[in-house]
Amino acid sequence: MQTQDHSVLLTSLRRQDRLTRSRIGALCSGSWVLATGGFLNGRDAAIHWDYHDRFMEVFPEVNLLRNVFVADGKYPTASGGTATADLMLHLIAEDHGQDLSVAVAD
């Protein structure tokens, strides 16, 4: 992850960020890519526990939390696995109400 070139992806994400109101989220190690692009600077974020300590060293400007997910406005992040479903249900409830979130969960 640290050795891969994400410049094409980051260029596309920056364009998307400028042109739309869409959320740009990351799951598992994807938070590393968002942090590389500066999207998470000054924000709370989550990442898979395998990357947590190194992430804190490389990106001190990101407030990394030991949460399964962080629904920080435009840039939600989840640590992966079932945390992804938890984040999805949280965002559905936030945007469309608890009833729909419960229905999707069922």
TrEMBL record:
One GO biological process term: regulation of DNA-templated transcription
Domain DJ-1/PfpI residue range list: 20-93
Xref: InterPro entries: Class_I_gatase-like, DJ-1/PfpI, INH-QAR
Top-rank lineage group of the source organism: Bacteria
Signal sequence, start to end: none
PANTHER family according to UniProt: ARAC-FAMILY TRANSCRIPTIONAL REGULATOR, HTH-TYPE TRANSCRIPTIONAL REGULATOR RV1931C
Protein's name in the database: Transcriptional regulator, AraC family
